[in-house]
Structures are given as structure tokens and as C-alpha cells.
């Protein structure tokens, strides 16, 4: 096998070139889905891949597929992809790194005159972030049959603008039926958005799946009262109950092993006044685990703790499940290719489970799929301070290239 | 001694007559200090007490004194007073009940042709609520020498209007020096603003003092992170620390006996997002106890707990003391008069310490002072739903009358 080596400087340049589309203060990027900035980066994508000899297909929800023919067009294409949209105060790497690494792989192959057995495709999935049009990972979800296209088209932003109108406006409603596109495998390179790789001094995360997650809204209601005039024994303090619940959620994570995470991210107190005993608290609970059975036990413990705490303090309680996302396990043969690819490149690597959701989590339902993570400084993302080094980008793209080539070779073994 | 009996219907009528000044939806009153509505109730007060033969004096910060001569003008006047201002969504009883009960006492004495030994004075203290011009109890504070008059005059409301300009505008800046007014004693009747009397089925609270209070602002800062991608062991979750602090504050109250109260009323989380580990929490802490030494020990425990919790979770902490109000003990001889007065009226009573601040707490620094409490439904105040019955108003005014007459008689024993 040839020694194919990524040109990290060229990849780095394309990262900075595309960061102009929606550039915002502090070095970040504000490129919400289906805006003028999104159109500009999509146009750039088309121009760039067409210059590399690819053909671009766009499906009915705006997902884009740049096709590079292989030696055997009877083989299903191997896809490399992620998303080009960002959060309102996003960074230069989240999403687009996985697309640009795909383009860099095409350039490396072109330079070497290398033709894969299967066709290669570089994919941009529409509206991964879900900030402008909720929910997140909308159009990889449509591709995977999780949502019907009508559902995506009818989503509206805060100004009441429909997804389909926004898609038409920028000229990216294609004719191909979503999900009608053949894919034999999908590889997604992404920044970790967490601190594990950095903490363990690894450059490559070999991602074995995506955690299952359950989200809840909780409301606890007691009685307000004057903080000076209401004796402790006559109080029904909703914040005291909420505080016990926050700590119970912590304990539930600790009780279910190092892979469990559980969080209260949002808490709103009423009336939230210095000298009034809190009468009502609303809060969000987020439970995650890579194993669905364990996650179900965590959810059971949480519901039991909520009941116990509310009863103990005489609080009313409402529990509303808002999201239930089963765990995803990526394709073992592709995971092994990524691991071997990192090894081949001499990179420190470890297996991990993605804590965040990704397009790959939906695509895995319909196509063998896996992911590669590279570190981001301090685990920070969705922030203009998001930072990944040139060497880390090189490492991710090289691992991806090694994995794709090895997988492609395996198709004709 | 004559059998002097309050006319509860007449008192009730005056409560409803004055509730027109600033009447708001739901049966409440919005009568912020030094507004047109405050001028209207002050004018009503002047007209009413002058019709009863009183002379009104106004001091330089707008405190009003209605003087009814006694048999012996060498004796210092006995004052009965409270405040006529309300919260923006106040009730019909908070403050004004203590002034109107004084007027009802004058009417009862007039009908009986009863002349006290010492002069009687009915007092309206300016700006007890502190909502428009902070701090609360501003002008009883000036009277007691806690604040200089310049301090009061220079306070500004949210629109930048100065206190002295507002006072001039409604024509209630008097010429008498604040604190220059002779007073021999002060009795303040007020609604409890807490649930103790109702819970113990008592009609009269014999108030022995006002709790000491210490208020703090606390800021805890950790690190934000993705709730899915940040393992528990790598978190510095500010809300977890804050929740432990809320529970520590509870325990501190429980550890210092039934009279201790301690509360976290306000909590603000940043970024307060469902899928972000909380990076920063600001919260308020309110510690109160009738005994200053005990309160100091509570404050010590609180500071130690804050340090321990912040260190344990690796959180930065800022602690800002915002208020330190020493405990007040009312005059024992006046407390005994109130107790005897309730007994004489055949009313269930109990001693208690005020949890809330009152004008009487400042006046007690310069004049023998005490208070009488009557229940309010569910302990609710600062709310349009504030409710006290005709019988409870009767009980409070009768107890006050009995106590004042007994005290007056004691002056010439």
C-alpha cells in the first residue's frame, strides 16, 4: 500500500478560509443553518469539490453529497462527512473539520493519483446544530428515516420562517429523495467537545458509539414565605428540595460507574428574591449512559429520588420527559479500522463513547458508521474560544484517511 | 379604670376607606412612598386627626406626628405608629393598620371623654418599605440617628428622582429636625407577616424584639462543559457546590434551635442551559437569630461551610456581606403591658420575636418601644392577597389600647 500523507498546512488553510463565512468577534463563527453565510459556505464546498472532479448531488432537505468515482461503481460509496452549520457563537472546527478533512483526503488521493475501489463521497448534513430550526441533527435524521421530510420542511425559526422556505431561498432544495442516496459506510471526524483526550494526553479518540440520553423537566412547588418570619418547621422550601435533587442526580451518576454522566444544567427559582422563601423551582435533568439498560436503571433511581424528596419536604412535583435517545453502537469493523489507522500513524489513541449527539448517531441506523475524535482545548466547544491545533487536525485527517483506505481495500479482499 | 372598648366596625371602615388610595387589582394597594397616592393618604391622615382635635407636626424627612394633648404636658408623649406606604403589590393592612388603630384609639377615647396623663401621638414613619427609595425603614432610621438626613434626602429612585425632590413635590418636607421630637414610648401594631400565630391559634403576638440578621451575596465559579461529554471526575460544577451550600444553610438553622432561620432565596446560574455543566452560580444567604452571639456563631459556621464546599469541588468563591443588623430587644416594661393588655381582653397570645424589620426596631434605639402582632392569613404579606380579619384587627387595637392606658397610668403612680 502506498504511503498517503495528509497535507496538514493545506487542511489548516481551508479551515481558516471557510471560517470567513460568518466570522464573528473573538475568532469564532456564526453560521446558522440556511442563512446567507450557510449559502456562502455551501457554494464554496461545491466550487471546491467540483474543481476536484466531483459531482454534487443535493437531496430534498439540503444534504449535499460530493461524489468521486471509484474503480468499481457497483460498490456503495464510502462517505466522509459532518456539517457546515455552527452555533451562533461557534468555533472554527465543530462540524466543518469533518467535511474539510474529507476534501483534504480527496486532494491527497488526487496528488498521488490514487483511485479507491468504491466511490468516495464527502457529505454535508443540513442543520446539525438545531439552533435555528429545532431539533438538532434534523436532516441526518430525515436521511435515516427518523423524521419524515415534511417534518423538517415545516420546522420554523424564531421569526416564524419555515425550513423549506429558507432552503428554497438559498437555492439548496435538491430533487433527490432524502435517504434515497446509496452509502456503504460513513466516517465522521469531529472535535471531542469534552476533556477526556486532553486529560489523558491522547490525540485520537476511537469512538465506539454514542451514549443514550434521557432529558426531563422537573417542577417542584412549595410555599413562599418571609425569610425572617417563617420558622424552619413551617416551611415548604422548593429550593431545598431542588438542591437535594441536584445532589441525588450527582450520586446517581457516581453509582453507575465512570461512563455515567448526570447533570442539572438549568434551574429557575420563583420568586427568586433575597427575603422570600422559594415557592417554586423548575429545573432540567440530563442522564446519559452508553448502555441502555444501565440508563434505564439510572432513570428509575432518579424518579424514585424525586418522589422521596418531594414527599419529604411536602412539595408538589411535575416530571416531564422531554427527550429519550437510545444508545448507539458503531460498526465494529469500522471501529477497528479507525484504531488501526491511528496505530499506523503512530498516534496515541483510546476508545471512548461520544457524550454529545452527532449526525453519525442517526446514520448508524441505516449504514455502517463510526467516528474519529480529536481533542479540543479544555473540552470547550460551542464557543468562539474553541481550539484544536494544526497537529491535532493532521492527526484526525490522517487517521481518517488510513481507515478509509483500509476499509476500501477490504471491500475487494 | 373605665371600660374602654374599640369600635371594630369603625376601624374596619377606615381600613377600607384608606385602601382606595392606590387601590390595585385583587384588593391590594400600590402606594409607594412620596407618590401622589402617598400624598392622598397623608392628606387624609391630617384631615382625620385634625378633625379629632390633634395638631400635626412634620419633620424634615416627612415623618408625621399627630399630637393629642394629655393632662400633663410635661410628660413625654406616648406614640402609636407605623407607616402608610406599601409595596408595589401590597395589601390593605401592612403598616397602615398600626396608624389606623392609633386613630381608632383616639376616637374611642374621645367618645369616652378620656384624657390620658401624657400626650398621645399617632405617627406615620416615611418610607418603611424601601421599595422606591432603598433602604427600608429609612426615616425611622433618620429619627433614631442611624442615618443622617442628608443620606435620606440624597437617595434616588429608579428614574433618578431624589428623595428630597419627591418630598418637596408632595409638600411633606417639614421644618422640625428629625429626631428632635420628644417621645416617651412607642407602640407599633403590625401584621405578623409570618405563620406562627395562625399555626398556634393565637390572636396576639407579644413581640419581645427583632431578630438580628446577616445577609450575604455568594458567587461560586467552576467550569462549564458539555453535559454529555464531560465525565463526572473532570467537572467543577458550580451548581453542585451551590446545592450543598443551600443544604448547609438549612442545617445551620436547625443546629441553632427553633428560633434560628436561614435561607437561600435567590439563585442565578450561568449559562443556565440544559446541556451545559453550570460554570457559575450567584446566590443570596440570609441568616437570622434573636441573639447576636448565636447569630455570630451561625455566620461562622456558614463561612466555614462555604470554604469547605468550595475547596472540595475546586470552585472559586466570593463572599460579600451586604447587611448586618444586630438583634433588637424591646423595653421589658412595655412588653409586659402588651401581655397584660391581651390578657385583659381575653385573647390568646404568645411571645415571639419579629422575623421582619420594622420602624420599631430603629425607634427602640432612642425610646422605650415595643410591638403587637396580629395574624395574617397563611403568613402572606407584600401581596394583594394579604388578609387579616375584622376580629383580628379588633384584637390588635384593643390590646394596644389596653397597653397604652396601663402605661399611661403607670407614669403617675
TrEMBL record, chains A, B:
Zn(2+) 1 binds at residues 83, 94, 190. Keywords: Hydrolase, Metal-binding, Zinc. It comes from the Bacteria. InterPro entries: Amidase_Cbmase, Bact_exopeptidase_dim_dom, Peptidase_M20, Peptidase_M20_dimer. One of its GO terms (molecular function) is hydrolase activity, acting on carbon-nitrogen (but not peptide) bonds, in linear amidines. Its cofactor is Zn(2+). Residues 209-310 form the Peptidase M20 dimerisation domain. PANTHER family: ALLANTOATE AMIDOHYDROLASE, ALLANTOATE DEIMINASE-RELATED. Belongs to the peptidase M20 family. This is Allantoate amidohydrolase. It comes from Methylobacterium variabile. The lineage of its organism: Bacteria, Pseudomonadati, Pseudomonadota, Alphaproteobacteria, Hyphomicrobiales.
Amino acid at each position: 500500500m502506498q504511503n498517503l500523507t495528509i497535507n496538514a498546512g493545506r487542511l489548516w488553510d481551508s479551515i481558516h478560509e471557510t471560517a470567513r463565512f460568518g466570522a464573528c468577534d473573538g475568532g469564532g463563527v456564526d453560521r446558522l443553518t440556511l442563512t446567507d453565510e450557510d449559502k456562502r459556505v455551501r457554494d464554496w464546498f461545491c466550487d471546491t469539490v467540483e474543481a476536484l472532479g466531483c459531482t454534487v448531488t443535493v437531496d430534498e432537505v439540503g444534504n449535499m453529497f460530493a461524489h468521486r468515482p471509484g474503480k468499481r461503481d457497483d460498490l456503495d460509496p464510502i462517505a466522509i462527512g459532518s456539517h457546515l452549520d455552527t452555533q451562533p457563537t461557534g468555533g472554527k472546527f465543530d462540524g466543518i473539520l469533518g467535511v474539510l478533512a474529507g476534501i483534504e483526503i480527496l486532494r491527497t488521493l488526487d496528488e498521488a493519483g490514487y483511485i479507491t475501489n468504491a466511490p468516495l463521497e464527502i457529505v454535508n448534513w443540513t442543520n446539525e446544530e438545531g439552533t435555528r430550526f429545532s431539533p438538532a441533527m434534523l436532516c441526518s435524521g430525515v436521511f435515516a428515516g427518523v423524521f419524515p421530510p415534511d417534518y423538517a420542511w415545516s420546522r420554523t425559526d424564531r421569526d416564524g420562517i419555515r425550513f423549506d422556505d429558507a432552503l428554497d431561498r438559498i437555492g439548496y432544495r435538491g430533487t433527490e429523495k432524502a435517504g434515497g442516496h446509496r452509502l456503504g459506510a460513513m466516517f465522521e471526524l469531529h472535535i471531542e467537545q469534552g476533556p477526556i483526550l486532553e486529560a489523558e494526553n491522547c490525540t485520537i479518540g476511537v469512538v465506539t458509539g454514542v451514549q443514550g440520553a434521557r432529558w426531563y423537566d422537573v417542577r417542584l412547588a412549595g410555599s413562599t414565605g418571609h425569610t425572617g418570619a417563617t420558622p424552619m418547621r413551617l416551611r415548604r422550601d422548593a429550593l431545598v428540595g431542588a438542591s437535594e435533587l441536584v445532589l441525588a442526580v450527582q450520586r446517581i451518576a457516581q453509582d453507575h460507574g465512570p461512563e455515567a454522566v448526570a447533570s442539572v444544567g438549568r434551574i429557575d427559582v420563583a420568586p427568586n428574591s433575597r427575603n422570600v422563601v422559594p415557592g417554586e423551582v423548575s429545573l432540567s435533568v440530563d442522564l446519559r449512559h452508553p448502555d441502555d439498560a444501565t440508563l434505564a436503571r439510572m432513570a428509575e433511581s432518579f424518579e424514585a429520588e424525586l418522589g422521596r424528596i418531594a414527599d419529604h419536604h411536602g412539595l408538589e412535583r411535575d416530571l416531564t420527559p422531554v427527550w429519550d435517545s437510545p444508545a448507539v453502537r458503531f460498526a465494529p469493523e469500522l471501529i477497528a479500522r479507525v484504531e488501526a489507522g491511528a496505530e499506523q500513524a503512530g498516534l496515541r489513541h483510546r476508545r471512548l463513547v461520544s457524550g454529545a449527539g452527532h449526525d453519525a448517531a442517526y446514520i448508524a441506523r441505516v449504514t455502517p458508521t463510526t467516528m474519529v475524535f480529536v481533542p479540543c482545548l479544555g473540552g470547550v466547544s460551542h464557543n468562539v474560544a474553541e481550539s484544536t491545533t494544526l497537529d491535532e487536525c493532521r492527526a484526525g485527517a490522517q487517521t481518517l484517511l488510513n481507515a478509509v483506505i483500509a476499509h476500501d481495500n477490504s471491500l475487494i479482499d
